[in-house]
Design goal:
The protein is globular. Helix content is 68%, strand content 6%. It has 28 helices and 9 strands. By secondary structure, it is mainly α. The longest helix has 33 residues.
Length: 708
């Protein structure tokens, strides 16, 4: 897939993610390591069962020892793993981790004792607790923000989906060694030793693949002046998780989703027996959990692509708890299996959404510790749930209730499911309230909009492109370069900006941006911008699109939603309704978001208008507002790092615009640039607004922007 195809592909395109060379290699390494993890679990439990004498009980204790030792290191090693993931070079962290696991598994057939199996189990798990957070923290460095969700889908699906090929490979290896023993009598080839050797090789090959990944940032994710002791680092990481509402809600929610699934896994066999089912019903219920998880991770983000990720996380977590209610109350195994699939689906959506938000919201220097904390808590909670759920069910026992002529029997498993449903629902609601990024906007409206697809009117003739971003993002520069490229191709181009590119708009612009205006009511400010948009769309944009022109606007509706909706103390739903009404809900075919940190953008020009003079906290809220809008409809947006070279940004914009040009009319001839008209009509001059933008010119880029 070429660069232009990858750039224009939908945000959820797995092919587009895999076409990114660096991520593809990391994914291959992850697939091999995950295959080794599952194959190693099968081989170690099989080895433990054959390495003891003492009958059935001894075999079970040996297997239980291996399983327990895979969980316990998470309590102690997990936080240290996060420290190492953030402080060590992540590429070499991954490579060394794979080589160590290769050596440990390869050593088992040579030592050939049960105690060494236990030692290797602990050591391998300890290495994995460093490897996994390093891998999770690396993914956001290798893929664009808009493709992080698809990358996480592939990563998680590979991590857990490799269990099936691992089981098939283990079975094939055991059958193959049996055939070898039959053909070569007395050779005594151990199927477990062969499986352990193949398992070791998967780690070695993974390390060879990852060592070629030079795109992973070198060195520590924490600068030298910020490095502290391991204990302080762990404490700071925990304090960050517990003290940041968003991250705290994410961690609690992800762990809660695993806990809900763990209750089903732990009680499935008992509950099925209570309802008169046998092994087939148990297998169906067990498989339903993982089927639901897979469907949720795969389909959930696509079905609700326009929905706020933060709201989606809390909502899906709450629903996963509520689906435990019919599991507890409905005495029908078929209906229970359906409810379990839906429970798993909601848990899968919460899981993939939570992982994506962690990758987006947590800075690189804290990402490894945060993922390590999550991994440790997942393992710990799963261990506790798998042990506590059956114990609680047994303590509750069976109860009979007489309701008139009816006798109702409730078993401990059903009541435990009800308790778990309440706990999961409370955790979900708490996470939702902590993370809700659209207060004042009814949930049902957001859901209706997401399910029904993006609202709005898209012109059937012409092409409409909007460039958005904070102050100093380079929108004027890029709109000028895009205009020049389109004119060279023979298209009529109307390059415009908001506010102020109509005679009425020029007067409104002077009011809202001139520092001499002084303080304005936030509602007044929003209405003035709305008036400018209405005039702009009706007198300039719509007529140009109607005749097949390409309209390139520097700022549009998103600026109102970000500046007045996120930056000011106005209700986002009211601002959105006002902005959509003032533009007759006309949407751009493509919105390019040039993302820049306020601390960088505000240094790119001299002199500040009324909005540019707002404090940094205001501009941080605006930036977050832009990113949230773009992430809700990734297929309609192109998010670019404005710190990149100008020509690289321009090339990506052209690649995304090109597929839309079939709706534009080729037109050769001279045109008066749109950005010159308002100034000419109001002042008789051809220079741009006071921000330094050279309007209507294509002689070269400038650093100023037409600010809103």
């Amino acid at each position: 897939m070429g660069d232009s195809q990858r750039t224009s592909a939908p945000a959820h395109s797995l092919g587009a993610v895999l076409s990114i060379r660096a991520f593809r290699r990391l994914w291959i390494g992850l697939g091999l390591s995950s295959l080794g993890d599952w194959l190693g679990l099968l081989a170690l439990t099989a080895y433990a069962a054959t390495a003891v004498d003492g009958g059935y009980a001894a075999e079970n204790f040996a297997i239980a020892g291996v399983l327990l030792l895979r969980v316990l290191p998470a309590v102690v090693i997990g936080p240290i793993g996060g420290y190492l993931a953030d402080h060590l070079d992540r590429r070499w962290n991954l490579v060394v981790g794979d080589v160590l696991r290769f050596g440990l598994f390869a050593s088992i057939p040579f030592v050939d004792t049960l105690w060494w199996v236990f030692v290797v189990t602990v050591l391998v798990e300890a290495v994995s607790l460093v490897w996994l957070p390093a891998k999770d923290a690396t993914v956001p460095n290798l893929v664009p923000r808009a493709r992080l969700e698809a990358a996480n889908q592939l990563s998680i699906a590979t991590t857990y989906g490799s269990a099936l090929p691992a089981a098939a490979l283990f079975t094939a290896l055991t059958l193959w060694t049996q055939q070898i023993d039959e053909i070569f009598a007395g050779l005594a080839v151990s199927s477990v030793d062969v499986a352990l050797s193949v398992n070791a090789l998967t780690y070695l090959i993974s390390g060879v693949v990852i060592v070629t990944l030079h795109e992973i940032p070198k060195g520590s994710a924490i600068s030298a002046e910020h490095r502290v002791s391991i204990w302080r680092t762990i404490v700071e990481g925990w304090a960050f998780v517990s003290g940041t509402p968003l991250v705290r809600g994410l961690v609690v929610g992800i762990v809660g989703a695993f806990g809900a699934a763990g209750v089903v896994i732990g009680l499935a066999r008992v509950h099925v027996t209570d309802l008169g089912g046998g092994d087939p019903a148990y297998g169906a219920m067990f498989g339903s959990v993982f089927l639901g998880l897979a469907l949720g991770m795969w389909l959930g983000p696509r079905l609700l692509s326009g929905f706020s990720r933060r709201r989606l996380f809390g909502l899906s977590l709450t629903m996963s708890g509520l689906w435990l209610v019919p599991v507890a109350l409905v005495p029908n195994l078929t209906l229970i299996a359906i409810a379990v699939v839906l429970l798993g689906f909601c848990g899968g959506v919460a899981w993939i959404t939570g992982y994506t938000l962690l990758g987006l919201e947590v800075e690189d220097s804290l990402r490894g510790r945060t993922f390590a904390f999550v991994q440790s808590m997942i393992r710990l909670v799963l261990a506790l749930v798998l042990a506590a759920a059956p114990a609680l069910s047994g303590l509750i026992g069976t109860h009979h209730f007489e309701l008139g002529d009816y006798s109702v029997h409730y078993h401990g498993a059903a009541i435990t499911f009800l308790v778990a449903a309440v706990v999961a629902a409370v955790v979900g609601v708490s996470s939702y309230r902590q993370m809700d990024d659209r207060p004042g906007v009814p949930l049902w409206r957001d859901l209706k909009s997401a399910v029904g697809g993006p609202r709005g009117d898209y012109a059937t003739t012409g092409v409409f492109v909007a460039l958005e971003g904070g102050e100093g993002a380079g929108k004027s520069t890029q709109s000028g370069l895009l205009e020049s490229w389109l004119r060279d191709l023979g298209y009529e181009v109307i390059r415009t900006h908001e506010p102020g590119d109509t005679p009425v708009g020029a007067k409104l612009r002077q009011i809202v941006l001139d520092p001499a205006t002084g303080a304005l009511s936030h509602r007044t400010e929003a209405l003035l911008y709305a008036a400018d948009k209405a005039e702009h769309v009706d007198t300039l944009i719509k007529p140009a699109l109607g005749r097949g022109a390409v309209v390139v606007t520097d700022r549009y509706v998103d600026s109102t939603l970000a500046y007045q909706g996120a930056g000011r103390d106005l209700r986002p739903d009211e601002i959105e309704n006002l902005a959509r009404w003032s533009t007759a809900d006309l949407r751009p075919h493509l919105t390019v978001l040039l993302d820049v940190a306020p601390g960088v953008g505000l240094t790119r020009f001299d002199g500040r208008d009324r909005l540019e003079a707002e404090p940094t906290e205001f501009h941080e809220r605006v930036r977050a507002g832009f990113l949230e809008l773009a992430e809700r409809q990734p297929d309609r947006y192109l998010i670019l790092d404005a710190a990149r070279p100008v020509d690289d940004i321009a090339a990506e914009i052209r690649a995304r615009v090109e597929p839309f040009l079939s709706a534009a009319r080729l037109h050769r001839g001279s045109h008066v640039p749109a950005t010159a008209r308002a100034t000419e009509q109001t002042t008789g001059q051809t220079t741009g607004p006071t921000t330094g933008q050279t309007t209507g010119q294509t002689t070269g880029p400038t650093t100023g922007d037409a600010h809103e």
